[in-house]
Amino acid sequence: MEATQESERLEQSETELLVAEFDSVAIQRLIGEVRCDEPVLSGPRYDRTYNRHNR
Amino acid sequence: MLSQDVDTVLLKTASRCNLDCSYCYVYNMGDDGWRSQPKRMPAEVIDAVVEQVGRLSHAQEHPLSVVMHGGEPLLLGLPAMDLLVGGLRRSLRPDAGIHVQTNGVLLSEPFIDLLATYEVGISVSFDGPVHDVNRRDRRGRGSHDRVVEAIARLRAHPEGDRLFSGLLAVVDPSSDPVAVYGALKATGAPGFDFLYRDGNYETLPFGKANPKSTEYGDWMIRLADCYVADPSPPRIRILDDLMRLILGGRGHKEGVGLEDYGIIVIDTDGTVTKNDTLKVAHAGGDRFGVGQKITDLDLEAFLRREEVSSYYELQAPTSATCRACPELNVCGGGMPAHRWSAETGYNNPTVFCADQMSLIGHLRGLLGGSGHLAGQFGALAGATVR
Question: In what order do the strands lie in the sheet with B263-266?
Fold first, then answer.
């Protein structure tokens, strides 16, 4: 359990370091989303509205 | 067992439109199937949609979204819209989304109140400074000012910011992307998406000199530079999707990436069809072999048919060029409608292939070079990154 928490903490800090490499807000938030693997229906509102349909 | 969960049910609540946009794929790309449709979705079709789509949402593993579309969906009128969205909200599982994609002209206070009552997300079509070039009504009058007023009305509503999902714009490659970005952002919308003008190898998209030219890629590159430099950027769905895929994440929309999707359309008369964008390929390209109406079929049984599986498989690009392309995981081969040629059907790269390669290469540069970040994410996130 403790090992898992430690691993998660390390991953978190590595992600924060990676985000810090970029000064672009648009890129920083994408990095956060990819890290979380956010599903469409809990994602940004614009994705929920259009869902898959490209129109 | 369905071959693919449905993630989007598109409802053609009205088959006509109060605008006559020059680039519209429904009315101005050679398919005139709308002429045989009733103007508005009849009550018996609404009842069947409420019952069958509600049942489907409970039967499948993943949640789905219902998107009201047209024509102009608000032409359905307030009473029928109340029946439809009220019924759907009761029949759908709680995590299902209901949304409307409107041109905004009819987005009155009573409509916004109704949509707020049933938690219906609202997206508005708006092209910014070039809006009136193409988005005119049947008397030739531009709709820009009416749409800007509607967006302001929506934002002023007590529930407006919660309901307002974003803007949908169509790229005019002769316009200034920085000015378009500024105009869309000035509306206060939380996000935008950009569509390319439709076309294929038979009819090239507007502004594209030949399949190897990069007018759309060049435009998007300038937009992307503006987007990543903005200290308070709204969301841009197509750019977010491409960059997410480059980073090793997942795309959310059809036409990019290789994830399977499940889109079905219910036409105004209740006929269940394939993705309506296939009209762009050729007239009737969105139709199943045997037309069946939602009032006469069992939707879950219909979705198990071989013909539906074949339709879903159409998304995967088949051309040898695509299969050998190092950017296939990001590009995804584009929308099937844009791959069409009379000689080889859908067995081609998208007609925007050169544009996409140029854009993806540029985005890779913005993200620090090919593979740099994706590699780090692979190590960081393990199985959660696809």
Answer: B235-236, B191-195, B164-170, B120-125, B97-102, B65-69, B8-12, B263-266, B272-273
Which residue on chain A is closest to B119 by alpha carbon? A49
Asked if the Cβ–Cβ distance from A44 to B191 is below 8 Å, we say yes
Residues in contact with B351: Cβ distance below 8 Å, sequence separation at least 6, in sequence order: B199, B200, B201, B204, B205, B208, B211, B334, B338, B339
Q: Please, are residues B116 and B106 in contact by the beta-carbon 8 Å criterion? A: no
Report the pLDDT value the prediction gives residue B168, as an integer from 0 to 100: 95
Q: Which pLDDT value is given to residue B257?
A: 94
Question: Which whole-number Å values give the CA distances from B131 to B126, B137, B179, B359, in the listed order?
Answer: 6, 12, 12, 24
What span, in angstroms and rounded, lies between the C-alpha atoms of B60 and B44?
Answer: 24
pLDDT above 90 coverage of chain B, percent: 82
Distance between CA atoms of B314 and B128, rounded to whole angstroms? 34
For B288, residues 6+ apart whose C-beta sits below 8 A from its C-beta are B272, B273, B274, B307, B308, B311
As a whole number of angstroms, the distance between CA A13 and CA A7 comes to 10
Q: Helix or strand or coil: residue B91? A: helix
Side-chain half-sphere of A43: how many Cα atoms within 13 Å? Answer: 29
Summarize pLDDT for B251-290 with one digit per residue, the tens: 888 899 998 889 999 999 999 999 988 988 888 889 998 7
Res. B378 pLDDT band, cuts 50 70 90:
very low
Residue B268: predicted pLDDT: 97
Confidence at residue B26, expressed as pLDDT on a 0 to 100 scale: 87
What tokens were used for B71? 């024509």
Residues of chain A found within 8 Å of residue B190, distances taken between Cβ atoms? 44-46
Q: Do A50 and B101 touch (CB under 8 A)?
A: yes
Q: What is the model's pTM?
A: 0.90
Q: Give CA–CA dist B311/B336, Å, rounded.
A: 10
CA distance B381 to chain A (A): 6
- pLDDT tens digit string along B314-336? 889 999 999 999 999 999 999 99
Chain A hits for B181, Cβ within 8 Å: none
Higher pLDDT, B361 or B28: B361
| Distant-in-sequence, close-in-space partners of B311: CB < 8 Å, separation ≥ 6 | B274, B275, B288
Per-residue DSSP letter, B4: S
User: Residue B383 is encoded by which pair of tokens?
Assistant: 């199985």
